C-alpha cells in the first residue's frame, strides 16, 4: 500500500499543517480578500526561505589549496679554494626563485647548516640548481654548479662543476639534504637518491629520454 509522498510524516509537520489549515479557516471567515493576502504572504515567505537555504545552506567554504613544500638544508662544502678574498656562498634556484646562503670566510672547508623552505611552483620544474660563488671585494667568481631532483628526498654530497673547467681532477662539493613535504605535513618520499643516480637521471632528462615532471 503506497503512501502519498506529500503527506506530512513527522509530528512537527502534522502540527504545522493543522495550524496552517486553522489560519486559512480564520482568514476565510474574515473575508476572501484577507485569505488571498495570506496565500500571497505565505508564497513570498516560502520563496524567501528556500532562496536563503539554497544560498547559505549549500554554501561550502573552500580553503586555499596548499602546495607541496620543500625543505633544503645546506650543510657544508669541501675542497674549496683557500685563497684571500675567496669567501664562498651558494645560490639555490628553483623556478623563478633564488635563495642565497650567507657568505663564509675563505677556507678549504666551510659549514653553513642553513635551512630554506619553498613551495612547489606551477611550471617550476623538477630540478633544484645549486650555484657556488666566491666573493672578494667588489667582484664575485662562479666556481661550480650542481643539480638535484625534487621528486625524491636527498641526503648527500654533490660535486660542483664549472663547465669552463670540465675535466678538473678536483672539484668542490657541497652536502645537501632535501625533504619533500605534502600539504598535510607528511614526507612524501623516503627513498634517498644517491649522487650517481641523480646525475644519471639528469643526464637522461637532458637527452630527452625521460620527462622531468614531478612523480
From TrEMBL:
PROSITE patterns: C2. Keywords: Membrane, Transmembrane, Transmembrane helix. It holds the Pfam family C2. The keyword Lipid metabolism does not apply. It comes from the Eukaryota. InterPro entries: C2_dom, C2_domain_sf. The chain crosses the membrane at residues 15-32. Residues 51-165 form the C2 domain. This is C2 domain-containing protein.
